[in-house]
Design a protein that fits this description.
255 residues, alpha+beta, 3-stranded mixed β-sheet, 3-stranded antiparallel β-sheet, 13% strand, elongated
Length: 255
């Protein structure tokens, strides 16, 4: 929202990370489209590197940031949260160790929740933008398992039933306080199957196989129903009601 000078300069690549913006996240697909400078201390990502450390180890990056010092110092988050804590003027707010988890499930906070798994790129973890909700995962399998449940009709129905559809906070982390996702258990056949189906759904979207995706999503719904103890009739009723809730305001007139 703040216009700044466009500058092209070489900088050290160490502090560059793939940035995952809201527009980069879709159902079953999340691919970072740009890069972001993260001048934070890996010992504790809540804190920025000291200015002396940045000057000595990353002088090009420091020189680049210095061109925008005034703008960076006037950021609302810096003024309100970081400056009182004596953080360097280039520090980032709301960056913690979980931000750098190698496997994450992500979805946007605005509009309908559409989850996807994101891993690393070039050996570096993707860093979601502040408009993207993330769930830190311990393994690839756990990430695919969670994304399967979040994208299932059951989770989607529960979400739109209590949240304001399309609201700015619909996809915030509070949804996991209302909809219970059991912790991933690799000894559970249902958990493993959901992870496998989710990974296949991601691949189907990648190659554009819509027919295969519909089959996979149908099976994900069945497995999710088994996980949450619902009957086939209850699953069909939820799918029907979800269709009505998400069809739009003109659905009844057209039917």
């Amino acid at each position: 929202k703040v216009k700044v000078e466009e500058v092209t300069e070489p900088i050290e690549p160490d502090l560059l990370y793939p940035l995952l913006r809201g527009r980069d996240v879709q159902r079953w697909r999340a691919e970072p489209s740009t890069l972001i400078i993260i001048p934070q201390d890996p010992a504790d990502f809540r804190h920025g590197y000291s200015e002396k450390k940045l000057q000595v180890d990353y002088p090009k990056c420091y020189g680049y940031l210095l061109r925008f010092q005034s703008t960076l110092k006037n950021r609302p988050a810096y003024v309100k949260y970081l400056y009182p804590s004596h953080e360097p003027w280039y520090s980032l707010y709301d960056i913690k160790n979980y931000t750098f988890a190698p496997w994450k499930v992500v979805w946007t906070r605005i509009a309908r929740i559409q989850a996807a798994v994101v891993g690393t790129q070039g050996g570096k973890p993707a860093v979601p933008q502040e408009t993207v909700t993330l769930v830190e995962c311990q393994s690839k399998e756990e990430a695919y398992y969670i994304s399967a449940l979040v994208n299932s009709s059951l989770f989607q129905f529960a979400t739109v039933s209590y949240s304001q559809q399309g609201g700015k906070s619909m996809g915030s982390m509070h949804v996991l306080e209302h909809i219970r996702i059991p912790r991933y258990d690799p000894s559970s056949a249902v958990h493993r199957r959901l992870a496998e189906l989710s990974e296949q759904a991601h691949e189907a979207v990648r190659v554009g196989d819509e027919k295969r995706l519909r089959v996979l999503e149908s099976e994900i719904d069945r497995q999710a129903a088994a996980l949450w103890g619902l009957t086939d009739d209850e699953l069909r009723e939820i799918q029907r009601n979800l269709g009505e809730l998400t069809a739009g305001p003109d659905a009844e007139e057209e039917s």
